[in-house]
């Protein structure tokens, strides 16, 4: 199954809504709960808004910025199925997602998790132990080549992210398999569901089709050259 064929946007930025819908349709059972942290206002470029509005999902939406959290609260003030939380999700025993979610009614094996915090995404996912969502969408640093391992320091003041390969290796340790890759987001499912997707080869070099890397090399005289984009995408 080539999930990129199902790309579609209702609120998402790069086809995530369509892929999420297709993945959830393939799964044998849905509990209709989702979580997004780094939720912003819950609407702009949201990967859960479509599930909440059009698929009647319950949700836990977490945003650290006070100003954006006010927008988030306002956007969902009339929806009793949405829990909004003003917290930064971390990777310690005090602030990891397990600690935050245990105060909500969400089941431990909820349907869908979206991680988008522009930095410590890898560490935040690694710190999750109790809660094991069926599907995980997580942002990776798209400037890092597919074959490179990279994980930023576990430091909330650093915004460098993690490479796709490092997230894949973490996912395998946690019992997940890669099923699709968009320009900045990777999709993982629990390993027990992987056969349902009939993906013959889920190596990142196969599933990642949008690669826009910058290469550095030297001439014989030691002069350094760059090939590819020379400005950040963001």
UniProtKB/TrEMBL annotation:
Superkingdom, according to UniProt? Answer: Bacteria
InterPro entries in the record: SAM-dependent_MTases_sf
Q: What is this protein called?
A: Methyltransferase FkbM domain-containing protein
Query: Where is the organism placed in the taxonomic lineage, from the top?
Result: Bacteria, Candidatus Woeseibacteriota
């Amino acid at each position: 199954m080539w999930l990129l064929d199902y790309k579609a946007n209702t609120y998402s930025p790069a086809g995530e809504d369509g892929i999420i819908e297709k993945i959830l349709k393939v799964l044998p059972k849905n509990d209709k709960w989702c979580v997004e942290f780094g939720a912003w206002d819950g609407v702009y470029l949201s990967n859960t808004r479509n599930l909440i509005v059009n698929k009647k999902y319950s949700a836990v939406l977490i945003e650290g910025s006070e100003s954006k959290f006010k927008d988030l609260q306002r956007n969902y003030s009339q929806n009793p199925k949405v829990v909004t939380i003003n917290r930064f999700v971390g990777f310690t025993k005090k602030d990891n997602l397990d600690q935050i979610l245990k105060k909500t009614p969400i089941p431990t094996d909820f349907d869908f998790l979206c991680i988008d915090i522009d930095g410590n995404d890898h560490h935040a996912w690694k710190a999750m132990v109790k809660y094991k969502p069926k599907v995980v969408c997580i942002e990776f640093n798209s400037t890092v080549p597919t074959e490179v391992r990279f994980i930023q320091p576990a430091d909330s003041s650093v915004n460098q992210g993690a490479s796709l390969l490092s997230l894949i290796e973490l996912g395998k340790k946690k019992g997940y398999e890669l099923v699709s890759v968009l320009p900045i987001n990777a999709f993982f499912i629990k390993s027990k569901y992987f056969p349902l997707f009939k993906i013959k080869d889920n190596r990142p070099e196969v599933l990642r089709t949008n690669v826009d890397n910058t290469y550095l090399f030297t001439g014989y005289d030691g002069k350094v050259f760059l090939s590819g984009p020379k400005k950040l995408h963001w």
